[in-house]
Amino acid sequence: MVTVRYKLHCLLVLLLVSGTLGGQANRNRGHEKQTNSFRKAATGFYQTLSNVFGEDNVRAVQKFFSRMTERFVFGVDVLVETVWRIWTDLLDVLGIDANYNELYQWSVNFYPEFWGEFWDFSGIVYSQTYDEVVDRSKSIADIPEWFKGSRLNYAENLLKHKENDKIALYAAREGKEDVIKVTFGELRKDVALFAAAMRKMGIKTGDRVVGYLPNCIQTVEAMLAAASIGAIWSATSPDFGVNGVLDRISQIQPKLIFSVEAVIYNGKEHCHLEKLQSVVKGLPDLEKVVVIPYVSPKEKIDILKIPNSVFLDEFLATGKVGDQSPQLEFEQLPFNHPLYIMYSSGTTGAPKCMVHSAGGTLIQHLKEHILHGNTTSTDIIMYYTTAGWMMWNWLITAVATGASLVLYDGSPLVPSLNVLWELVDRLGITILGTGAKWLSVLEEKGLKPCETNSLQTLHTILSTGSPLKPQSYEYVYKNIKSNVLLGSISGGTDIISCFMGQNVCIPVYKGEIQARNLAMAVEAWSEEGEPVWGESGELMCLKPLPSQPTHFWNDENGSKYQKAYFSKFPGVWAHGDYCKINPKTGGIVMLGRSDGTLNPNGVRFGSSEIYNIVEAFVEVSDSLCVPQYNKDGEERVILFLKMAKRDMFSKELVKRIRDAIRLALSARHVPAFILETLDIPYTISGKKVEVAVKQVIAGKEVSHRGAFSNPQSLDLYRNIPELQNF
């Protein structure tokens, strides 16, 4: 029953006129809360049935559904599938379109009611319930408080599953044959020890704890321990250089940092201690450095030059009480209590420090995992990510569903291109997430996992980080697995979640993200601030959401926050992305960052529209499309091509690309120059950096290079002869 939970929620909105199940769930949690919004949402539907069948007959159907859903609550969920089939047949007869869009519109129009119902539906663990979901009179720019009065703990919700012997975490690493397994029982015990050691050194609610760590088990344990205390967790991955790390974590003044001595990537060992030593020197408030032996045994690691440093085993020993393991304790905190500090890319200035709440992160992620992903305790989920990318935070919350997580550290292409697919077969992974770029690389290499791997357990492939190209959809369904759900998802670190993404109930259309997510009031707007459909526009969010940042760190009056999201269109969230919403399918095409939007000759379009055409050419390995301006403000488009092989760039290729763009888009989309480049700049999280290149070709300096994976590539765009004297 792949979609039972999701279908049940649709039934709740469309069918339960009486609100029976919602009322019962609330009574079970010790408070009486009427579900008037549910009744209102279904009143018109109820009246339609009454007119057709007679009120007595409809009341009988209503009672039948109430009984079925009550039985579902107690575990007899197989009946819901039968109910759903009967009901959809009935809707077909009536000509009533009970589709996802109906549920979406209800969730947006009645967003406080939606989130209140989902609080019950998701089974969130709390010690004190809420007085109010959210103040409807406040706009998204007012940053309203959510679930006021409630008390809970994020870590407690992730560690609530009592099947001690069930695997919670698998950890796989490049160059290591063994896969480490940690059960839920072991995870709770380890987190308790981490937390006890933190308390022993004086870590308390509100203190900052940092991980300069790879995607490994200890990273999860340290984060959950910090969350159990109410400390605030922040992380960067080991591939960040010293400046990139200090640009971020020096702003938040951490007391404690966890790190490793080295990592393995792309077949090479990268020593980490020298960078760690420099980072520690730049953190005057740091009280302790905990080094985790990761590549080498403790005996071969010298940490004497790092002030206030200890090895992990020495640190954890301080948390023990004699020979006894410490008890796992969870501080009960307000819904809006800070959980994470996340960072903007920092490619054009100092990174912004975004504070995300424990409750907002939890409930938003649960919505995406349970409803949109249909994740259950039978799933084994892997997302290829570093511990510094928001997809790591998103992945970890999935353990709250009882699912098992796979942590992978290393290159996704070493020792073979099949390394992740082999892991899918070995561990029985059901949901695999990755960056869109990885799928493009596999396509370029001609890899066909369907011929080399079973992939029998895999039912979902997720992609994010950059727009998924239309040809990548074809590649996945033809060469990876034909009956998988390919879910392109999109959101951002700013909301630590997704505005839009996968959906188990509707079709996948090539080149489109399936749908806007529930309760995410997303539209595309023109420059005049009007909604546009089927046209390119600015991605806007019109109504509050629980996972928006509660504030920015060191932004006392909130001016940085307001400038970041609400300066373009006051009162509504401008996300900084450019997109197009298909009015027929409801799907979304992401078109790149709006700060990199191109507008030559009055035609406004996103760079991804060019990439989707250009990168279909076999000669092209990668591309970058940016605007160039002259002193009069006139704009022209410059397209840079990184070739699959050095000798492939030619006038004939340039002509074919120009013709393809003209045919697919228009003559006004054709770049003024198409030039060859040896490299394309990317952030460490795998995103193209268009804005920085735009600055370089304008003769400006890019001082903040710590977020780039290849910062030297920026110098390739300086003083290009063809671009002078414009």
Automatic annotation (TrEMBL):
<dbReference type="Pfam" id="PF00501">
    <property type="entry name" value="AMP-binding"/>
</dbReference>
<dbReference type="Pfam" id="PF14965">
    <property type="entry name" value="BRI3BP"/>
</dbReference>
<comment type="similarity">
    <text>Belongs to the ATP-dependent AMP-binding enzyme family.</text>
</comment>
<keyword id="KW-0443">Lipid metabolism</keyword>
<keyword id="KW-0732">Signal</keyword>
<dbReference type="GO" id="GO:0032024">
    <property type="term" value="P:positive regulation of insulin secretion"/>
</dbReference>
<dbReference type="GO" id="GO:0030729">
    <property type="term" value="F:acetoacetate-CoA ligase activity"/>
</dbReference>
<feature type="domain" description="AMP-dependent synthetase/ligase">
    <location>
        <begin position="162"/>
        <end position="499"/>
    </location>
</feature>
<dbReference type="InterPro" id="IPR045851">
    <property type="entry name" value="AMP-bd_C_sf"/>
</dbReference>
<dbReference type="InterPro" id="IPR042099">
    <property type="entry name" value="ANL_N_sf"/>
</dbReference>
<feature type="signal peptide">
    <location>
        <begin position="1"/>
        <end position="25"/>
    </location>
</feature>
<dbReference type="GO" id="GO:0006631">
    <property type="term" value="P:fatty acid metabolic process"/>
</dbReference>
<protein>
    <recommendedName>
        <fullName>Acetoacetyl-CoA synthetase</fullName>
        <ecNumber>6.2.1.16</ecNumber>
    </recommendedName>
</protein>
<comment type="function">
    <text>Converts acetoacetate to acetoacetyl-CoA in the cytosol.</text>
</comment>
<dbReference type="GO" id="GO:0005829">
    <property type="term" value="C:cytosol"/>
</dbReference>
<dbReference type="InterPro" id="IPR000873">
    <property type="entry name" value="AMP-dep_synth/lig_dom"/>
</dbReference>
<dbReference type="GO" id="GO:0005524">
    <property type="term" value="F:ATP binding"/>
</dbReference>
<dbReference type="InterPro" id="IPR020845">
    <property type="entry name" value="AMP-binding_CS"/>
</dbReference>
<keyword id="KW-0963">Cytoplasm</keyword>
<keyword id="KW-0276">Fatty acid metabolism</keyword>
<keyword id="KW-0067">ATP-binding</keyword>
<keyword id="KW-0436">Ligase</keyword>
<dbReference type="InterPro" id="IPR005914">
    <property type="entry name" value="Acac_CoA_synth"/>
</dbReference>
<keyword id="KW-0547">Nucleotide-binding</keyword>
